[in-house]
Amino acid sequence: MNEVCKVVFGLAGGLALFLYGMNSMSDALQKAAGEKMKKILEFLTKNPIMGVLAGALVTAVLQSSSATTVMVIGFVSAGLMSLPQAISVIFGANIGTTMTAQLMAFKITDYIYPIIFVGFMLYFASKKEKVKNVGLVIFSFGLLFEGIEIMGSVMKPLANSPIFVELMAKVSDIPVLGVLLGAVMTLVVQSSSATIAVLQNFASQPGPDGVTSVIGLAGAIPILFGDNIGTTITALLASIGQSKNAKRTALAHSIFNITGSIVFLFLIPVLAKFVQFISPKGPEVEVISRQIANAHTTFNVVCTLVWLPLIPLMVKIVTTIVRGDDTKKVHSYEPQYLDDKMIGQPIPAMYMVSNEINRIATSTEKMLKILKEIVSGDNKEETKSLFKKYHDAIKTLQDAIVTYISKLFTGGALTEVQAERVAGYLAIANNIDRIADRCGDVVNIYERIGTSEKILSEQAKEELAQCVTIAEELFEQAITAVATDNVDQAEQVIKDKKRMRKAQKKSTKKHLERLQENLCDPELTRAYSGILLNLDRVADNCTGIAEEALDRVTYVRFDTEENAQQNVIAANA
């Protein structure tokens, strides 16, 4: 195999190992962090400074600013985050992604294999999920550095190639070429962390004199800027087909990196001197990897400090470029929050499922109210049409929720605790689906009564309306118990289930009494009993939802939402 093939395959293999290690470490970090990810994401609902911190922390866990940006775009598109909040998180994500470069700058060549071995043994030998996740983090960390070592070893011949040295000299002399090179590299690899790691490795190769870097800090910085610009393409692609605010969020990410790169292109000598001042001293090939990491961090921190107080200006810029009303008219049949791009990030995905279940629950409450009007004798086509609208919306949304939850399970990113919680969401969605079926059966029975030209007595209609009222109250209490993690209320729902059984028996007894007095048609007994039976099953489904609340299945909410919910409970107490 000739030298060119060795270099190409070595780079490809090392890069593949690096990317696998980084992605595997990201998944393991998320599982190890578990519910702590929720605490980090709670910062998103606070002020811009907290948003920056949240963006940095989330990116440090996800090991990808692109993943954080895609998550934020999903939140904005679903209406769960405002544009200014999203922009502050994007700023933080740019800082968080520099942590990967800082890790890469450590010289741990002699410890790679012990790290891989320790990580493997922890993962392989332990039966505890948390320990296995920690082991996988360590193992993936070792693989990541092994990938870097492979890339570094195959790059050594390049440093002695006159053609390549001359090409790097041109890049150093013409910074714009470096920016273009960095942007193209990131576009191809789809990971700025990977291209920066390649840059750090290549810059660590000695030039002809054996002391200075083959490219030098001044030549590496423009490529670094290009890497920052290239990573914004992922966000722009993720915003396609999303709301206008989602497009504005992606555009803000691009503006942040492009404007910063343009300004710093004129300040490369100043930035290089500052970085050399704050970095360790020594031969250039020994310290340039850390210098590049520090340049990356300095660039993003300075840009964030400049743009943070100018967020209103950034909002104005992006809303001027992306014009139009962002009022998102979502059809009641369509899921509003579910986003497949979140599947690999359990907490945000569970947050979106929570919001969709809350939405389907609201439709169910409205459906029950309309059902009460129907059983009370409202036979208007408009009322029946409205019932069908909510009934069909519940069925369609439930299918979407079940499909999304199935993808969450097959994604393999859930911890055991998260998997139990998501299984609880599935049970709640299924119970709501059955409530819709039972209500649909009631309406069908009413339609059959109408075609038979027989009429239920006013007393019978009143009794049925009372049973629907009980079903309404049980459902509202059960859903509130899930939403607020209220075990006491869940227990009360199970106790109150007896109200429906008593009402059913009482209604049946009165119907028989009316038959004796010839006040009701005997042929309607089966239909009347069928309606009561379906309403009793609705109550059973409400207790099924309450039982999930007893198992501590609750919505994923960020603290400001939880506080608002607690205030509502206190006000109603």
Fold and architecture overview:
The protein is mainly α. It contains 24 helices and no strands. It is elongated. Mean pLDDT is 85; it is low at 560-573.
Total strands: the figure is: 0
Helix fraction, binned, reads over 70%
* Silhouette: elongated
Distance between the termini: 78 Å
C-alpha Rg (nearest Å): 31 Å
Report low-confidence residues grouped into runs of 5 or more. Answer: 560-573
Described by strand count, sense and barrel closure, the largest sheet is: none
Structural class per helix/strand content? Answer: mainly alpha
What oligomerization state is this entry in? single chain
* Average of per-residue pLDDT values: 85
Strand content: under 5%
What count of helical segments does DSSP give? Answer: 24
* SSE series: HHHHHHHHHHHHHHHHHHHHHHHH
